[in-house]
Structures
1.
Amino acid sequence: LIARASGPLGTNAQYLFSLDQELRKLGMYDACLDDLVGKVRHLLGESSQPGLA
């Protein structure tokens, strides 16, 4: 659902990726979020490494 959902402000996947990126900038890491980001990137056929998508 996250990989395909979108709304007036963009895709749910982009929101997820942005959240992950901003948390990392603040020095915060969440293993569950990281796992979810990897799974969504895989479903979208993107690189699982930040900044390479």
Note: The chain has one domain: 6-44.
2.
Amino acid sequence: MPAKLAYYLHRLKELPAQEIARVAVRKANHLVANRHKQAHDLLRGTFALEHTPAFTGLQTLLTASKPPRMDEALHRLCRKFAGHSFNLLGSGWIEQRYGMRCRGRDGNTYTMGADVVADATGDWLAAYVPASMLAESRRRWRLIKGGYTPIDWQLDFISGYRWSSKLPSSAITFGNKPGADVKVPWELARMQHLPLMALSHLDSPDVGLVHAIRNQIIDFAATNPPRFGVNWVCTMDVAIRAANIALAATLIEKSGHEWDAPFRTLLGTVLYEHARHTATHYEWHHTLRGNHYLADVCGQLFTLCALERTPQTDAWFALAVQEFVGELPLQFLPDGANFEASSAYHRLSSEMAAYATALLTGLSSERKQALQSYDWTKAKGNPPLAPAPQSADLDNELLERLEKTAEFSLHMTRPDGVLWQVGDNDSGRFFNVQPAVHADTLIEDGLDHHHLWGAIGSLFGREDLRSAAGSFKTDGWLVEALSAGICLLSYRRPGAAVAAHVCTIGQDFEFDLWKARVAELPDRQKLSQSFKIDEKVGNLNLYAYPDFGAYIWRGKETFIGLRAGPNGQAGNGGHAHNDHLALELMTKTGPVFQDPGTFIYTALPEVRNRYRSVRVHHAPKAGTAEPCPFEYGTFRLPDRALAGCMYFGTRGFVGTHQGYGQPIYRMVELSGKDLTVTDFVLENDGITPTDPTPEPIAYSPGYGIREKA
């Protein structure tokens, strides 16, 4: 059964008859309105042909100091980007173009693209752009300089499946073709490679990179009319793309290069088209919002700060500020972790929050004035904009949560520099200005979070975080540049421990009581495994994140992590896995048990569920049962496990969940260099714990990537 159909069927079961009728009417009305809008767009076009605000750039960057020097490997990486060679989501290095032949994904290969001879006048665009927009598309294309081979922005260049740029975005479907992954064209069209290319030019002037940035922006603007094709389907990608275009274009101007007048005008138009789309397509819901909505808002802030003020952009900016300030307490928990039950999505959301906070901290007095007086009626739809004034200030509680995001990321990183992957990992980023690439292959280590520690460290003046970031200094520079050098007050007092280090659950005598109780249980109700670690437990640092549900012991060579928390997203569990009470264990010889990652989403739903399954995690098991059912679709995992921790301290850990219909428990005892894991039940007439050893599966360090099992 298709994932979306399964989701809707289950949702219908949960609703009363009257509500089902209301939903049906609402859906029907939406369908009719959508069809009318599609017909209008096809007839009238969607390009912004009216006078649009001028591109002004991100002003604080222009007066900031020069960024840190760039490694030679990153310069080589940028030259690859300039030649349209990309390695995204497990593709390997591929030169992207129309008509390319793709290797396929898990035996699914499509041949859908045709070779293109891109003439300078843009006549070739007639096959790819609706007739009503062809004239403007050709006009934009004629701004291209030099010999240029266009990028096929609609192509999943792994499977070969291609979406159509002539089709309204609201009519685009995905997840219904085996092996075809919509995330591949989305990832490329985020244009996150452009700021890195601009930084490369800023570090070592290369006019070829400037021309490549200019031509790629024009290419996209000419071949992707707003609301058409795959790259306007998801507002998150629209907003991230606009922010990266704004950042890259500003960095080039910082180098002393002046954009030619026609291109500078186009920059303003393109950013306005993106801001208009975001403002009218926010991924807002009155009860369930996640990283998509946060990206919409943060991307919009950057886009609008790079445009001149008008009554319309002032209203959109005020709305973005309002929603950013209001969204942070939902998206980030009191312990600093993100609310989506994913350590990888935590990085993405923390980046967005940090950069946006820096941007708002460094706002000019003129831009602040926009928040004091604006026409709130110019921001239509949901969410509603409140009348003026608005404040861009974050209170101390929110700033503390933001500061703790870096601590969470740091403590979730094992001694080998690899992130403990809890929940989904789609390798998503907001800005990627200093990727952790291997010098020989130029392949990025997506589980490296050093850059985030540097960014938060610079925002709050935390020398310990900046030190942990090591040579990753560019994100910190960017934060300082955006904030105009203003450093926010840290919650942590000099010499004090971080909050997670002083957090324990329960008392030692309670652990002793649990241990005695387990000892009295019959063998059928418990199952134990023992392991050796390399450091005495007394030498390990303890860190607890009870709101997220992560309990950690870290040493120089040892990492022990237990997962006992909610499925996230206020119970929706869209990025959660069945990892309740799962153990992550690393010793000096390497990982003993590690979360296998995510690998894939809608392109291969069965494979996605395999990676979400309890069977591939070192977690309490009861035969073949799953703690939470997969039947609700690929992005919903309702939390029936209700996992929690009852003890966490120097003696070990005790936690429980109810996902198998009755409570099952896990006790971890630490003594000297011994670690003993015992899964048990207290009832003698129900489930029986079975071997928790994970089934073999290929480790996935990033989206679309699998190592040998």
Note: Residues 17-44 form the longest helix (28 residues).
3.
Amino acid sequence: MAERPACPGDINIAVPLVLDDGTCIASFIDGETVTHVVGFTFVAGSEPDSGSNLTGWYHALGRVAGELHRHSEGWVKPEGFRRKVWNTETIIGRQAWWGDWRKMTQLSADDITLLEVVEDKVVARLEEYGHDADRYGLVHCDMRLANLLVNENSLTVIDFDDCGICWFGWDFATAVSFIEDDPALADYRAAWIAGYRSVRPFSQQDEVMLPVLVMLRRLQLTAWMASHSETATARRYSPQWGAITVRLAQAFLHQASPLSTIVNCKESADEQ
């Protein structure tokens, strides 16, 4: 942690507190339970006010992602540095960190069959896309607006617990978590890409892969819903999660981007 990469420009991250022995991780023993704790310096700021200009904030998110990705490419990792590797196996496969999406109780047998077809297509597309260094590396993995703190002209990125090795476009997929049925999603995507390209290249191939990564993220979140069903977030989203996920999957299989067709999916659902 002490050897974390410094952030570029006006982008900041919280500074870890160092213990007297020079380490950053404290351990507390309570009976048979060992708890590990880290601390950070206080960061002034608040979550972005998304009520008036959400598209503008997605431009900012894209720029921040591009800056961090560009920086991570040139950062020399310290000896012993390890983070989770996020790939199709650990996101939705047999080694998935968040469990099996099939265990979500709101999915019918027919739904699961459909989503398995989608899963196969997503995996095939990402295998073809590959893991070259210009598209796959150290990323935040949860860069939603809720994980930015704004203080005047300064931005601080927080919540790095999911940070690991993944596709750079994954930082867009996570940025639209839980709002894939927002009618303005295509506008958010365009703003994010524009912000990203203002600081780092993002090819047409990278852009084409964003719907694939969004679908991958949706399946991962479906697994999260199943394995974290006791949480307030799961209770809030679960009632409609399965139905919306199936509509996204149907659009995806018809060679249509969920980012451009979700409005029609949402309107169809509202009419039922």
Note: Residues 46-271 form a domain with the Aminoglycoside 3'-phosphotransferase; Chain: A, domain 2 fold (CATH 3.90.1200.10).
4.
Amino acid sequence: MRHLPSRLTPLALALAISGIAHAEDAPAPDVLPTVQVSSEAEPSTGYVTLDQKATTGKLNVAVEDTPYAMTVVNQDFIKDTGAKNIQDALLYSSGVYSGAFGLDTRGDWAKIRGLDASFYLDGLRQIYGYYNNVRTNVYALESIEVLKGPSSVLYGQGELGGLVNSVSKLPKAEQQGEIWAQVGSFDRRQLAADITGPATEDGKLLYRMVALKRDSDTQVDYVEDDGYLLAPSITWKPREGTSLTLLVNQQENTGQVSAQFLPIFGTLEPGPLGQVGSETFVGEPGWDRYDREKTEFTLFFDQALSDNWTFSTVARQTNSEAETREHWVDIGAVPTPTGDVTRTIYTVDRATDVFNMDARVEGAFDLGVTRHNLAVGIDYQDALWEEDNYYYGAGQGGVINLYNPVYGNLNSGVITPTDRNDNAIEQTGIYVADHMEIGAVVVSSALRRDKARNSVLAVAGADTRSEYYSTSGRIGVMYRFDNGLSPYVSYAEAFSMNLGGDGTGGTLKPTTGDQTEGGIKYLSADRSLAVTAAYFDITQNNRVSNGATPGGVEQVGAVVDGWELEVNKRWQQLETQVSFTELNAIDAQTRDRLSAVADRLVTWWNKVHIGDNWKLGAGVRYI
């Protein structure tokens, strides 16, 4: 695998200064306020998004009218909370446990309702495998949508927790833009621009340029978080009802892995010489690195077939590379009386080659006393991810002192890299979704048929393939009272293919599951107050976990039930968002709680406007 080339951001950006301030309690480094100036800034809609239409539903229906739990995190909230990545933007969403590892240069982490989530971009799956792609830069996003609970009926195989769908910034018809600079702790420096508008006088050609350059250290010594984003897009509207958009996303992140996996003694438990500092780096400066690069081409096409019917398709080609050279403290290592520990040395080069697409026909029509929004579509994904130059040397990375690390003890001579098996997924799904209204009653249903094939492409010997046909369903019923209160109940299913063997010569069974949910949604007439509450019960079958023997696996079940509440309120000078989540997540076999799942989450974010040009934000989270 080739080394990632160094690049320069092709924009020279000017510095403009105005004022904004916020406070945030997340564990990531403190960052000084973003400063920005905009031309013809759009009026803020605040944090109330219940009346918005989320693309995750694949229907032109507002969130308030869907009998399923869904959260939309808009650009206002992303900016006001100072979110530096997707997991930061989700910290205050109900039902979501985000950023479990705190500062983490490896990627974005989130569990929805106690289970893993799938990550999508513009309605297409984005993450295949692990640590082989660049995390999506949050500055390139218009919003982030969270669909809670199983969603295979719309997206095929996926995690039972739900999905996180990021929505890219695309060209707009009105000229607008911003250029800003940011400085912060740990020598963090960012320069960014977002400019959009018509490229021709007749408005048939629109453009947008989103760019960002970052140089930054982190709270961990010798760990950098540098990178750039370049995301130009162009929209062509040759005639009324026809739109074609091409989006290019080029990203590169360079630095090191921030997670040092320090031992329990000296962190949670007393160490031989006291507490080990969170800034401690156990790798080798100049050798450890975690460099990633990706290039994406996304095509959006919309064609009006009549006044009520539209054909839409989105397709994306993604190629990414990641190069990892890393040390960490050996798992289970106990520091000596002087603080010495042994290290693991690790290398791997990863790459992905992914094509996926979704095409559907959507329309609205009346049938007797019923009103329908109907979508019929097909989606396809073909993904390959590779691992080369792999070496895992437990105990072979030399010795380092946690209290006074002395570098230069690199033991790279032990590395004997090998190529690992490649993995591939190919899936085709056909789906139909219908949103039916009968007066105040809403009946939302969907059905999907999938053919999925997951493959392990062996370096030596025979390949392993699993082929699976699945039919998934979803149905929900809602009643909308005139006072804005809408109670609902729903049922949904999901499945996820598992790669690899079961240790007995067979392949792993697909993980399947379903969810029963009941809740209420409320939106005030003036759109200033939104309340969502839900109770849910999820059953997961054939969950993959560690087996009784070292290196073995077994498939067991899990049961998750709980409830969540989210309130958004907007006054003239103050906005607030409160969320509460209660979870009971247990292993169906051992009856133990699932690991890395919070029992209870409480969050509260506030923003107050001070005069015409200043605003102050502050938030708190309890886990």
Note: The radius of gyration is 25 Å.
